[in-house]
Write a structure and sequence with these properties.
The chain is an alpha/beta fold and about 290 residues long. The protein has a single domain (about 20-180, about 250-285), classed as Rossmann fold. It is about 20% helix and about 25% strand. The protein contains six helices and 16 strands. It has helices at about 60-75, 90-95, 140-155, 170-180, 270, 275-285; strands at about 20, 25, 30, 50-55, 80, 100, 105, 135-140, 155-160, 180-185, 190-195, 210-215, 215-220, 225-230, 245-255, 255-260. The chain has a ten-stranded mixed sheet, sandwiched between helices. Strand 15 and strand 16 form a beta hairpin. It is globular. The termini are far apart.
């Protein structure tokens, strides 16, 4: 299968699930029963709370929820999940201290045949001309991008995972806080992730680790001193003209808040690599100013 780089990359909306009720979002609960978010948690008085926007056409929200549950349960931090991209707003985010996103920037209003991208699967449809061609559109508005930006600037944390750099292609404000934008990636194959020379509490004491995952190539917009992780195909396999190495993580202060991006995340096998779990835990703690 040939992988193409486009302004709107391979990804999309998942099945309808979750619901909005009362003053806030009711999603899939992780470490405790779902509850109404009518009042924000205050630091020093109660536990911080996380909201995770997850799932798209190529990333089933269930594996993401199960993956993150392991991290947040160990940290004893409550987390709510949603696939409702259109619910992201300043009024919703005020109820949280940490925003997590693992999804891309596309939805498919006219539908699609399946989560795969193999056009050969469409060849033998009994009515091949009656189903519209799948056409993605972007979902984020600049108002939503501003909400994320102001949420972090006010002193909260933003953990950007894997393909959420794709959202940056369609929102200037989101990209400003997230810090970079998606380029493309090769198919699943083994590569190594290691710490850069930039010292940081998140990567202190970490060992290099191997994953079989999508090695995402991204454009990074900020100062190189904030890059904390690098991915490398140690078998020497290049991806197009982009070489064997890619930026795989960064961490920096943004206003009064903090941002972390880590690129690994296409499979639960990669998400649960023991060294990567430790990086995720340290990232959450750093974002919440616990380390």
């Amino acid at each position: 299968m040939k992988f193409f780089r486009t302004n709107i990359s391979r990804r999309t909306l998942v099945q309808n699930a979750g619901m909005v009720a009362g003053a806030g979002l009711l999603g899939l609960a992780a470490s405790e029963d779902v509850q109404s978010q009518s009042a924000p948690a205050a630091r020093g008085n109660s536990k911080p709370r996380a909201l995770a926007l997850i799932g798209d056409r190529y990333h089933n929200p269930d594996y993401i929820r199960v993956s993150l549950d392991k991290v947040f349960k160990d940290l004893d931090i409550p987390i709510d999940y949603t696939i409702q991209y259109d619910s992201i707003s300043a009024s919703l985010l005020k109820n949280y201290q940490l925003l997590v996103i693992l999804r891309d920037g596309m939805i498919w209003p006219d539908g699609y045949l399946g989560p795969d991208a193999y056009t050969a699967y469409e060849a033998d449809l009994e009515t091949p001309k009656t189903f519209p061609d799948p056409k993605p559109v972007t979902w984020i508005t600049e108002e939503q991008g501003t909400a994320v930006k102001e949420f972090v600037s006010a002193g909260n944390g933003f953990y950007a995972f894997h393909n959420c750099s794709h959202i940056s292609l369609s929102s200037k404000n989101y990209r400003e806080v997230m810090g970079g934008a998606y380029i493309s990636h090769p198919p699943l194959r083994p590569f190594q992730v290691h710490a850069t020379e930039n010292k940081h509490p998140i990567t202190e004491g970490m060992s290099s680790f191997m994953v079989n995952d999508e090695q995402h190539y991204v454009t990074y917009d900020k100062d190189p001193k904030y890059i904390i992780l690098e991915a490398e195909n140690i078998d020497g396999l290049k991806f197009e003209e982009l070489g064997t190495k890619s930026v795989s993580g960064w961490a920096y202060d943004f206003g009064k808040g903090r941002v972390v991006f880590t690129a690994v995340g296409h499979t639960i096998h990669a998400m649960w690599n023991p060294q990567y779990i430790e990086i995720q835990k340290k990232s959450v703690r750093w974002l919440l100013k616990d380390i």
